[in-house]
Write a structure and sequence with these properties.
With 316 residues, the chain is mainly alpha-helical. The protein has 14 helices and no strands.
């Protein structure tokens, strides 16, 4: 019997084999090999730097976390981790850092998104409003801390305003209000950068989809929740991760305000690390660093899974 399609299938398979052969020859051509060698040469310094300054130190930290000290190198397995968990200073620093991040990071994301949406609308004094939130990015951190000291010192501006209204002075940086002051400092310093990222994400949303939603009588909340929020999912993830990382780096501001041992609610994990390093207690510091890394990986993994779930229908 004659099958007219068999010849065509055979010719298609032969053509596919020829294409694969041509591709294989092009992959092994001298020009391709030369390009790969050049690429590898450019990548080698960066890869070497990453290995020497990131990967290798990380494994050294793991090693130090499982020995009694850097001199005798006696293997103690998880004893250092148990010691860290039993340390009152570590528990307090971890609780303060968790509380601070849980308050500051969502506020930084939500407020910067609201500010970006506000600046997208037609409001008066838009440029001045934008400048107010972007100015901390241009000011050195020492100057920012100096401004906060002027505002929240015991004899500072905030207490002078309270006295004018007949209220008592408050020692802002040595009371239960201390962490709230640091949260405000964190927000003022980071809102501008986050706001710019959200404004860029809002401007990249397809206009035709928004116009169709308006024609379909969608409410502003429905447009925001079902369209804008979905298209900004990757930006929200990035802003959240950056805000989380910056919340762990707030040690600089607190250190400039109050030094090594601030008020109890201002004592963060970086203070614990810095003071432990000053005592050359490498094994305890390494164990605490490993615990911090594990927590960060878990949190960022959850954020990636959340973004993947909410943004999967707009990423094509």
């Amino acid at each position: 019997m004659h099958f007219p399609g068999r010849k065509k299938i055979k010719s298609d398979s032969e053509q596919t084999k020829k294409q694969k052969g041509i591709r294989k020859k092009s992959d092994t051509s001298p020009r391709t090999r030369r390009g790969r060698r050049i690429s590898a040469g450019y990548l080698f310094p960066s890869a070497l730097g990453v290995m020497l300054f990131f990967v290798l130190p990380f494994f050294i930290v793991i090693y130090y976390s499982m020995v009694d000290n850097p001199i005798s190198h006696q293997f103690v397995f998880l004893d250092n981790f148990v010691m860290v968990f039993q340390n009152a200073a570590f528990r307090q620093a971890a609780a303060n850092t968790l509380t601070f991040s849980a308050a500051a990071v969502p506020l930084a994301v939500v407020l910067s998104l609201l500010l970006a949406m506000l600046l997208e609308s037609k409001i008066p004094f838009k440029s001045q409003f934008r400048t107010f939130f972007l100015s901390p990015m241009m000011v050195p951190i020492a100057s920012v801390v100096l401004i906060w000291q002027v505002l929240f010192h015991y004899n500072g501006m905030m207490n002078e305003i309270r006295v004018l209204f007949g209220a008592d002075k408050v020692d802002w940086l040595n009371s239960s209000y201390a962490q709230a002051v640091i949260v405000m400092l964190f927000l003022w310093k980071n809102l501008g950068y986050n706001m710019i990222l959200f404004m860029s994400a809002l401007s990249s949303i397809p206009k035709d989809i928004l116009e169709v939603a308006v024609l379909e009588s969608a409410t502003p909340f429905q447009i925001f929740w079902h369209i804008k929020l979905r298209y900004m999912s990757s930006t929200i993830l990035f802003v959240t991760i950056m805000s989380l990382i910056n919340s762990f780096k707030v040690f600089r501001e607190i250190y400039l305000l109050k030094g090594d041992y601030p008020y109890d609610t201002m004592y963060m994990l970086q203070h614990f690390m810095n003071n432990t390093f000053g005592r050359l207690d490498y094994q305890k510091m390494s164990a605490a660093a490993i615990l911090m890394a594990i927590v960060m990986v878990i949190i960022i993994g959850i954020l990636f899974l959340t973004e993947s779930y909410f943004g999967k229908d707009v990423e094509g």
